[in-house]
């Protein structure tokens, strides 16, 4: 049962979607291999909400950018911490986390860990 979620949102140049997809696939493989329950990365498609603050406005998305919304699920925060500890020791992570090769601006990424409140 999922009890903890790491979530992140980031702006991405639309011309970098293919590069980002490659990075995301490798990240997915690593997190799942080290014990995550689920790994999802989604690219913005309907971002013109009228009833709330739309992601592009909150992230100050620039011309030519879209939004990536993603989450990784775990059994608990302790499980997340264990998975991430294993992940940080994996040398393959360095190949995908080189800041000079990132297809997005890491300084504009939003991230947080969340305890599940409601689930079905």
3D architecture notes:
The chain has 120 residues and is α+β, with helices and mostly antiparallel strands. It has a single domain, classed as Alpha-Beta Plaits, CATH 3.30.70.100. Helix content is 33%, strand content 27%. A 4-stranded antiparallel sheet has the order 2-3-1-4. The longest helix is centred in the N-terminal third of the chain and has 17 residues, at 17-33.
Provide a compact summary of the structure:
The chain is an alpha+beta fold and 120 residues long. It contains four helices and four strands; from the N terminus they run E-H-E-H-E-H-H-E.
Q: Ends: how far apart?
A: 10 Å
Specify the number of helices.
4
* Count of the domains: 1
Radius of gyration: 15 Å
Report the helical percentage.
25-40%
Mean pLDDT: 95
What is CATH's topology name?
Alpha-Beta Plaits
Classify the beta-strand content into a percent band.
25-35%
Strand and helix order: EHEHEHHE
In terms of structural class, how would the helical and strand content be classed?
A: alpha+beta
- How many beta-strand runs? 4
Largest sheet data: 4 strands, antiparallel
Shape: globular
Overview features:
120 residues; alpha+beta
SSE order and pairing:
Blueprint: E1 4-13, H1 17-33, E2 38-43, H2 55-59, E3 65-74, H3 77-88, H4 91-96, E4 110-115
Antiparallel strand pairs: 1-3, 1-4, 2-3
